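Residues determine shape. Take a concrete instance:
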Amino acid sequence: MESFFKYAKQEEFFRRSFINISEVKMAAFEYIEGFYNSKKPHFANLMLAPNEKEIQFSKYILI
């Protein structure tokens, strides 16, 4: 969690000014769903984005 908050602050929250809490909530949602969970490479995934890791993993599953 510490790593997540470190990057969220660096990449999203410290770069912007917010007028109210609803803007902060929307920015957090957009950061998490639009970037962090889909496009940002993660060390635990061998520096692949979660979407890339999921595609790679699905190639090995027998259906």
Summary: Residues 2-58 form one domain. The radius of gyration is 15 Å. The helical segments are 2-13, 21-36, 50-58. DSSP finds three helices and no strands in the chain.
